[in-house]
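This week, think about what follows.
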Amino acid sequence: MEKIYLDNAATSFPKPPEVADAVYDYMTKVGANINRGGYEAAYDLEGLVFETREMLKDMFGGTDCKNVVFTKNVTESLNVVLKGFLKPGDHVLCSSMEHNAVMRPLVQLEGLGIQFDRVPANSNGELETDKLESMIKPNTKAIVMTHASNLVGTINPIAEVGHIAKKHGLKLIVDAAQTAGVFPIDMNSMNIDVLCFTGHKSLLGPQGIGGFILAEDMIDLIYPILSGGTGSISHTEEVPDFMPDKFEPGTMNLPGIVGLNAALKWINARGMDSIREHELMLTERFLDGLAPLEESGLVKIYGLKGIEGRAPVVSIQTLNTDCADAAFRLDSEYGIATRVGLHCSPAAHKSIGTYPVGTLRFSFGVFNTEAEVDAAIRALCDICR
């Protein structure tokens, strides 16, 4: 049975062949570290890491590649930023559609005297921006917000939120897990102070590599919660105060960075616009194909009705069979990989009315085809009827 992978919101698969080739070549032909070797291979590798920072800075409209910091993933990035920036007595705004990568750090910090409030979203996951300004308090320090929901794909109006943040002297921290590599992001024009990303989703890199990019004035405002060897200023036991060493202690995930480097080159060659158009075309085809099932009362589709303002993510409930059973049958009988449950986003499910049952989620990637979408529609028709 031919396998169909429709779980790209969790991690993209397959990766471009160049990504695997680059990681393999590094592991078998280089194997060096950076900042810790006085030989040509280490120097060449340092050049590749610098090049990767440059590409990320250019892709996201950062100001300086030294402000691109590598971490394991977007979750680690958000933890480093939120826990290093916020202090007892501070107040933060987030959306009601956040992933636990945002919510769990905020709930932890709440126990340390940091407050947060959720700007509500409607049942389609659309942020009620008209309520945002009225929720700002004298001690509000930042807005932290996902760019697009991992549950229903609804895109938040980050540029509008950034304008409000700047107007009130707040910092805007953005979780770009679902959009980086597919949707254009410009930190400068959107007034984004910190952009957190992960490499293993639409950036098409390996798991275990991610990062964040800082606006220049954020560097001195974030306390480094991780510390250790950096290979620089080794004569002192103090944490470096310069970028990116301030936030990059320990041995880096160099195989991950090498793979991400190859992935970024592949995206730039293919074109982000082309990738986005393809993925949204598949999303629209899927939505159109499910419409008769929804009209017949067999499924319920959540989120926006069309592809405008939506990332390539679709959540549904199968109304005459348990979603988990449907996911099992999709895999075991039809070879279709999806995700079922709460998707690490209980707040988002409460916003759209699917908590605690959850949803069955389909998410499309650049390597999916129209034939695969059609196969998923046919399989759902069989299962639901």
The mean pLDDT is 97. The first strand starts at residue 4 and ends at 5. The longest helix spans residues 272-295. The radius of gyration is 21 Å.
